[in-house]
């Protein structure tokens, strides 16, 4: 029977007897072409947006005082990196924010996974605590920043607490739902074979929920950064949020955009690292099929 495959969006008919290796090589070439095209358009859009921003600022189509320009943002970053900021070294302020976000991220993620799996596996406890979890989750987390600062002060604990709260509910909800979505037939088969509750949880439920958990981890580090920066914005001595607050108070648009750019780069690097870890820990998952339509 003739084999049919899609290359770069068009159907290509193989002659009878075409080997599987040739079909796979053709699919890989199509995938590389598609990835190259995606990267081209990503870079092209970025260059276009930055170029239009710079041109608009230079030609006074927009007010540089309020919108700055890419060159102005880079100049501010260079100034901060070489001369420091009004609140000390740029790298120290960045480290303060990263420390707060990382502690809150790991604490919130680990707690969210354990609580989500525990309540997901115990319907009685989940029924008891569900009303309290829903009540706390209904509170906009950012409004807790003044409360944490009032209770814990301007230092590290208040920012970590806010980052923890931002991360915990995202991870908990996905872990809980992932456990509830576990294949009931596989659980039943494991029990028939004599598996204990812990063995079922470890070998069936947790692997089934890993996709849900990693999906939450991809976005939760961004929430940890948001929690740390919002806490610093409300009240802090150091950190990127404090730099944004100072830039806002002095109408330094370049400084605000420079701080936002730093946060964006850090978050993208964390997302890349998280993807590498996920790919390493989830090798058991089947590879996604190439979609060139």
From TrEMBL:
InterPro entries: MetI-like (IPR000515), MetI-like_sf (IPR035906). It comes from the Bacteria. Residues 94-274 form the ABC transmembrane type-1 domain. The chain crosses the membrane at residues 37-55, 101-119, 131-154, 160-179, 212-234, 254-277. Keywords: Cell membrane, Membrane, Transmembrane, Transmembrane helix, Transport. It is a multi-pass membrane protein. Pfam families: BPD_transp_1 (PF00528). One of its GO terms (biological process) is transmembrane transport. GO terms for cellular component: plasma membrane. PROSITE patterns: ABC_TM1. It is found in: Cell membrane. The keyword Heme does not apply. Belongs to the binding-protein-dependent transport system permease family. This is NitT/TauT family transport system permease protein.
